[in-house]
Design a protein that fits this description.
Bound molecules: NADP nicotinamide-adenine-dinucleotide phosphate
Number of helices: 10
Oligomer: single chain
Strand content: 15-25%
Structural class: alpha/beta
Radius of gyration: 18 Å
CATH superfamily: NAD(P)-binding Rossmann-like Domain
Largest sheet: 6 strands, parallel
CATH topology: Rossmann fold
Number of strands: 12
Shape: globular
Number of domains: 1
């Protein structure tokens, strides 16, 4: 089986390349431009993969508020291009999405299942939700995998990840303030890559939630990072409105991953164990 990984130099793409080994064909941004149908056609015709995994995205959540056209081009219309190109070649498409398709239910306190109605609160979340629908409509043999708060070993320039940012800030400061009213499950890309590798061995196409287990807040996560890394940094909780980011975030976007486990037998590790392994 040959599996093309789009975004192979990104966080998740790098771990997918590692987990898939010899079956993987890496496609970097230099190899393919997913907003350009001609580039997709040329890449697929040259490599003839059986499966395409799309990890490419416009991920800059705050900047997306000012650049909705760019966010929708990469997160919605490009996945439709991919879905059409894959469907016409009998290729299975795996598309990666986000917990930020939720957020409108401010009272929510139980993990969202795949059956729950999404309701994003940001341009990024809306563009990713549109991408989910367009992939599902455009390619009958498709998996859509929602995940959350990714951290991995590769980081694209200017993006980084929360864990690395905390470690960097913790070198210079002995006190930080971090948001404590957004509950979700930050997730190691290594675990998502393992889950996707198992999912593509099935033909149980459809929507899946895929995060590490249990849940936390960014403040609790930061405290745990410093505890595991042995750094003496005091992390003080603040609210989302005190932080004042341009884009709204869900106050609760914990995902129930039971469907993934029932189809693949993959049990996602607890977020604390995943973080310990990563650090
Ligand atoms: N990061 C998170 O916290 C998070 C949370 C939930 C869901 N997700 C989703 O998980 C997926 C993977 O995220 P990630 O953190 O691994 O992303 P990432 O590290 O930013 O990697 C994405 C890769 O895609 C490439 N790319 C971007 N635009 C492209 C385009 N138009 N055509 C071709 N390649 C393009 C990027 O290359 P360049 O950098 O060279 O442009 C980069 O190598 C995305 O779908 C994202 O929405 C991420």
């Amino acid at each position: 089986m040959s599996i093309a990984v789009i975004g192979s130099h990104g966080q998740l793409g790098t771990d997918l390349m590692h987990v898939l080994g010899d079956e993987a064909i890496g496609l970097t941004h230099a190899d393919i431009e997913i907003t350009d149908p001609a580039s997709i056609d040329a890449s697929l015709d040259e490599r003839s993969p059986n499966i395409v995994i799309n990890t490419a995205a416009y991920n800059l959540v705050d900047k997306a508020e000012e650049e909705p056209e760019s966010a929708f081009a990469v997160n919605a219309f490009a996945p439709l291009n991919l879905a059409r190109a894959c469907a016409s070649r009998d290729i299975t498409l795996v598309h990666v999405s986000t917990d930020y398709v939720f957020g409108q239910d401010a009272e929510r306190t139980t993990p969202y299942t795949e059956q729950d109605r999404p309701g994003p609160v940001s341009v990024y979340g809306t563009s990713k939700l549109a991408g989910e629908h367009l992939v599902t409509a455009g390619c009958p043999r498709s998996f859509v995998v929602r995940t959350c708060g990714l951290y991995g070993n590769a980081t694209s320039p200017g993006k980084g990840n929360f864990v690395r940012t905390m470690l960097r800030l913790g070198q210079d400061r002995d006190e930080l303030t971090v948001v404590n009213d957004q509950r979700c499950t930050p997730t190691a890309t290594a675990d998502v890559a393992t889950a996707i590798a198992a999912l593509i061995r099935t033909d149980a196409y459809g929507l899946y939630h895929c995060t590490n287990a249990s849940d936390t807040t960014w403040c609790e996560l930061a405290q745990t990072i410093f505890e595991i890394a042995g750094l003496d940094v005091t992390v003080k909780p603040i609210t989302t409105s005190e932080f004042g980011a341009p884009a709204r975030r869900p106050s609760y976007s914990v995902l129930n991953c039971d469907r993934l486990t029932s189809v693949t037998d993959v049990t996602m590790p607890h977020w604390r164990d995943a973080l310990t392994d990563y650090l």
